[in-house]
Amino acid sequence: MERMQGEGEVDLEQPSPLTDKEKMMIQDSWRKVFQNCDDVGVTILVRLFVNFPSSKQYFSQFKNIEEPEELERCAQLRKHAHRIMDAINTLVESLDDSEKVASVLKVVGKAHALRHKVEPVYFKILSGVILEVLGEEFPNVVTPDVAAAWTKLLATVYCSITAIYEELGWTKLSTTTG
């Protein structure tokens, strides 16, 4: 495994590339998930905001909404959930095109670092929420092997995003230990 240094505080291990079998498992499972993309996306974001309320600070439109039911009905949240699901869909459809994947991640990374000023750790947190929701909502689809493939993909996404943040000179890649 290739190791990447993050500001001397964190070691990010770049996962090995996805195998053809892992790509196929991700794509097959995603087809079933994407049929309900809006509902799944909303579930993911509501879970993120309920379990990690600090993540709402980046969303002026709904950062003060406390009730999960109200979050679910919020048009801006639904719109952002749809954008997230579309981005994941593009990644999943492009697993055999590393340039396309890199391009999508660069756009997402740059926007979140420069425009939205989102701490990169939230990509790691979101990855965990995505895995949790997919496992709960699609237990017959997201088997342990499929979950392992998704874990590897999302770890790769996180490593790529943090590398983009570093290239942009982002200095808060982790909380300082001390």
From TrEMBL:
EC code: 1.15.1.1
Stored Gene3D superfamilies: Globins
Keyword Heme: yes
Class in the EC hierarchy, top level: oxidoreductase
Signal peptide as annotated in the record: none
Catalytic activity line of the entry: Fe(II)-heme b-[protein] + nitric oxide + O2 = Fe(III)-heme b-[protein] + nitrate; 2 superoxide + 2 H(+) = H2O2 + O2; Fe(III)-heme b-[protein] + nitric oxide + H2O = Fe(II)-heme b-[protein] + nitrite + 2 H(+); H2O2 + AH2 = A + 2 H2O
Family: Belongs to the globin family.
Record-given protein name: superoxide dismutase
Organism: Mastacembelus armatus
Lineage start: Eukaryota, Metazoa, Chordata, Craniata, Vertebrata
